[in-house]
Structures are given as structure tokens and as C-alpha cells.
Amino acid sequence: MIDHDAIHDITRTVYEFAYGIDTRDWERYRNIFAPEVEFDYESYHGRPATRMTPDAWIDAVTQLFMGLDATQHSMSNPLVDIGTDGTEARCRMYMQAAHFLAHDGITDEFTIGGYYDDHLVVDAAGVWRIDAVKLTVWWRRGNDDIMRLAHERTRSARRTD
To answer: Which tens digits make up the pLDDT trace of 87-102?
Structure first.
């Protein structure tokens, strides 16, 4: 039997990943994760997967996202597989992530497309939490240098605070 409530809760958790980043709602974003998470973005930047706490991850991603003017992460076509005991699941979802930065009198865009393959577990309160994220990038479009510029903008702003 298909557990439609669990599928809804799992996909909502994964959608909160995108929504939390795009709205810069870091508390919402933090709440979707298990106490330790494996992040695998090797297909994006070439570095191997790493395990860290949600706070360490958020500290790292805010260095980038706070320097961008806007982002829009779109996710679609979720495929959810729930484990036989109902306490773990896998959710694969197409994604496109658009990043925008105004500089030198223009607004540049850098977008990637591919899919996320997330692993989720049920916590003691019965809430689905992400404990592994793997991004597979299929394509890139636009000016990827805005990501470096966004990092620099964030570092500069933190130095003046």
C-alpha cells in the first residue's frame, strides 16, 4: 500500500530545501536536516562528499547565498521510495537552480540543471529529515563567475560589520 501522507511529507521536506535557500530563511532550512548530513556536490565543484552538521553547512552556504541578489531553485518530478520499515526514504527530483547577481551595471545569471538524490530518515518525533544530499549536475548556463563574486561580496560585507 502506498503511504500518500509519507510521500507528501517527504516531498515537502525536500521542497523546503529550495524554499529555505531562496527566501534566506535559515531556521526553516536548518529544520529539514538530521543532526549530521552527508553533502555530495562533487559533480558541481569536484570536491568529494563530506559529512557535517546542519549549522556547519548553513555557515558555508550563507557565505555564497548572502552575496547573491536572488536565487530560484525549482524542483519537479519527485520519485519517492520508502524503505520497508517506513523509517527511511529516498527522493530523487529534477532541479534547476538560477542564481542572480547585479554588478558592473548589469545583472548576470548562472543556472545549473540536473537532479537531487536525497536520503531521509524519520526522527524520534516522527518528522522526516534529510540525512544525505547528492547533486548531479547535467548542464550549466550563464556566467559561473558570479558565484566567486558573490563569495567576495559576502566576505567584504562581513569585514565591514
So the answer is: 999 999 999 999 999 9
Q: Is the pTM of this model over 0.90?
A: yes
* Cα–Cα dist 131/33, whole Å: 6
Query: What is the count of structural domains for the chain?
Result: 1
Report the CATH number that the domain containing residue 79 is assigned in CATH.
3.10.450.50
CA distance 46 to 65: 19
Torsion of CA 42, 45, 49, 55, to 10 degrees: -140
Which domain does 156 fall in, by range?
4-160
Sort strands 128-142 and 33-40 into parallel, antiparallel or unpaired.
parallel
Answer yes or no: is pLDDT of 27 > 80.
yes
